[in-house]
Amino acid sequence: MEKQLQQYLIEAQKTIKETxxxxxxQALRLHEIEPKEKSLNNLVSEVDxxxxxxxxxxxxxxxxxxxxxxxxxxxxxxxxxFTWVIDPLDGTTNFLHGLPFYSISVGLLHHDEPVLGIxxxxxxxxxFYGYKNGGAFVDGKQLNITSSKQxxxxxxxxxxFYNETDVLEQFLNIIRRLVNECRGFRRLGSAALDLAYxxxxxxxxxxxxxxxxxxxxxxxxxxxxxxxxISDFNGTNNxxxxxxxxxxxxxxxQQLLSLIKKEIKNI
Length: 267
Known about the structure:
By secondary structure, the protein is α+β, with helices and mostly antiparallel strands. The protein has 2 domains: 2-142, Fructose-1,6-Bisphosphatase, subunit A, domain 1 (Fructose-1,6-Bisphosphatase, Chain A, domain 1), CATH 3.30.540.10; 151-263, D-Maltodextrin-Binding Protein, domain 2. The chain has helices at residues 2-27, 46-62, 92-96, 168-181, 191-199, 213-225, 252-263; strands at residues 36-39, 42-44, 67-70, 82-90, 103-110, 113-121, 126-131, 135-138, 141-142, 155-158, 184-186, 205-209, 229-231, 244-248. The chain has a 7-stranded mixed β-sheet with strand order 3-4-5-6-7-8-9, with helices on both faces. A 5-stranded mixed β-sheet has the order 11-10-12-14-13, sandwiched between helices. It has a two-stranded antiparallel sheet with strand order 1-2. The termini are far apart. The relative contact order is 0.14.
């Protein structure tokens, strides 16, 4: 399968670069774009929808027998032996406010296992990519985060959520703990890029609740191929469809998981 994945990767990279050019062109006309709210603080724009159409159309030619899971439901949502998992614009709120931290995320599942992932930083024109057993890279440079860090030395990235107020207090407790137990923490606004940054060693750990497969599929593959640790909040591998994820370098991962297990109940 390795040669197949290499070819799928090359073709998908071309597709993503074309889509990125479109998104950049739309960043010049933000004042004309009228977003819609799918749910509380969960925005979608014409740019998300058009970008998704572009990706689906072109990736359908790369692997015609594949199914699709996409954020904006622009095509039939169907899992098959191979399934493309697409977020056409991860970080829509950042994009609409002119904050240059948003990405295109494209992952490929084989029987629900991530085997290929690409996260393209649109504003910086920087691409993170990899495939199963082939390593992870950013613009040709291989990523490796096998060195260990303790939590107290680590920069942690996290994501807030808006529609699960019953567990908000538990997450605030984690933040209170992290203030004293890590080097610092950030909320950047694109889960796909957060995971890519963990894979690149730019931050040492990431966690978030209430995510979807399109948020994490590609980035999760990058973390594992770079040598990082990844799981759900229970320490198991139900992080693609389980709506919760922890990803970190060794050492940081174990301590962050332990802290989260102490604070998070019944989710």
